[in-house]
Fold:
Amino acid sequence: MILAFFNWEVIISTTQLLTTDGIPLKQSLKKAERKNKIRAFFLVFPLLLFIFVTFVMPIGDMLLRSVDDAQINTVFPKTFEEYNKWDREKDKLPPEEVYRTLFEELATGEKIQIGRALTRMNYSKSGWKSLIKKTSREIKKMTRKGMVPESYKETLIEINKDWGDPTFWYSMAQMVNKQTPIYYWNAIDRTYDQNQNVIMQDEKRRIYVQTWLKTLKVSVYVTFFCLILGFPVAHLLANLPLRYSNLLMIFVLLPFWTSLLVRTTAWIVMLQQKGVINGVLVWLGILSDDGRLQMVYNETGTLIAMTQILLPFMILPLYSVMKVIPKSHMRAAQNLGAKPAMAFWRVYLPQTIPGMSAGGLLVFVLAIGYFITPELVGGKDGKLIGSWIAFHLKTTLNWGLCAALGAILLAVMLVFYWLYNKIVGIDNIKLG
Amino acid sequence: MALPSYASPVQKTYYYFYLFFCGVVFFFLVAPLIAIVPISFSVSPFMVFTDGMLAWPPDPEAWSFRWYRNMIGDCSADVVSSTVPCSNKWMIGTVNSFFIGIVATVIATALGTLAALGLSRPHMPFKGIIMAILISPMIVPLIITAAGMFFFYARINLVYTFTGVILAHVALATPFVVITVTATLVGFDMNMVKAAQSLGARPVKTFFRVIMPLILPGIISGALFAFITSFDEVVIVMFMASLDQLTIPKQMWAGIRQEISPVILCMATCLVALSIFLLTTVELLRRRSERLRGIKPR
Structure:
């Protein structure tokens, strides 16, 4: 056997096969292959480029922004340079030079740039904004009069005694680098103390860990409910004769095709206090007229609406897996003496695991990034992490924190995306 | 899947419970969509079933096209209500939605079909990773996409423009085209391309005369998916569109947040009708495509 293999090697290496043009066959084949590869790639290239520019680059930009701290460094470059020379062990307050450069940079800086820097400074320590604003005004007055202070340090402390407060100066240490992890720490309720140690936020500012956990909790619940509700339905659809199952499939596909907002609105109509469900319950006499249930604008509403909205994503993968499980398996198991429950548990259920994991992951991944439905039916305590991202993007304009929250969510997503790819394969996604 | 005649009473109970449970889930899936339809024809300015609507015999006073007329911008005296504003915003939104949707669909379908053709070739290098990148806009949560795009498009002055919104929608819609067209190409007999070429057809001609007619159902389904993606998209529009780019979902969002009115339900009813139409079309196309490719219906 080994000898035969060896012989082949010899033959291939000694007698080269040639094409009619006299080029070795191997080379010619390779060339043709390369041509085909390039051709195939050129078909994909326009879309790849398009997605790269319109989608991948924006996401990358967001990731950069989550650690970016360059803006403030363009406003106070010299101050920060001098600041780094300050020996905290030796002096309680920074040296005169720091005060001088800060004074000059405030006097000459552009108002918009300083304004942006102030917002950033307030993230590190509240109070910076008003301190610098007041000081700036005084400095402008002095420069207009042409006054040059003798001691910048004393003048500044005279303008506002906070300039003599070392905690303000300590907080500046977080800003002197052009990259900062602070937004990531903020996104998990941590912040820096004056010695640059990571500590917990104030009790009343701790919102994100709680929200992350709630987002996870809601996603797990929704996935679980979808599985419980979706499994029997998928089983029924997969086992009914085609003409019935096609008809019933419409019940699954209609919500899938209907606008998310329409479905969310529909749930508000159903669940509100004067809504359909409460109305029916009162009419049946189960509830008294003033005992109407509060089912919307809280977590219950979010769970109900999200389960209905994501249910098709569970049913469709389950259905496509169950469709190909031969019906004879259950019969065979029962023939061999298994009770129906045992046959189901030992024979049928294990074969549906690919479908369950595909559907489960899909639902979970979609749920974790959900934003519209929790925002509309979640009320105050139903808000998930997506709502906070939107809030910082649109309302507080704390884009660093917004980007950091997004980046963490993205990282969680990618882990599950990778899992999905391992289990199901990205190119096995099917629609409808 | 009927129960065998020898089933025990316990099995029968289980079986009927199972059918009942499935019935409840089907009801859960469609009931909310059906419930909004009658309320949209209500006279009352609240999104509820009024007593008049539930009365028997039906009370014609309780029903009207009032809110539909409000929706199309008819602000006559019997239409307006103190709590429900009347404007032509819904109509502007409809025009914008169709404009953005159609332009985005055309671009997405062209790019997506080309890419699917490339991806289905056996010689495609780095297929896995390219597919992962092309599908990613569908997987990444919309809020992250919206944040990233908002930051990036703001740098190049594309926020609050039609171009920006359309580009974003094309990016979101192409995965659907790629997936549907690739799925159609799975059963495609590549020998036909070779046959066409051996008979002297150039690649472009081969595509339009041989490949396209066969995969057309897939392309159309992909296009419809792309259209509905853009048409229903609200998160991107919320951040990247100004009032000039008002679309139906943006107006609905504003409606739900501020003035809960039956006009929203009128638009919702129209959208449900649209989705029934699209769903039927896609389903018919899928069957036609399977017939064309000689796959027996599942």
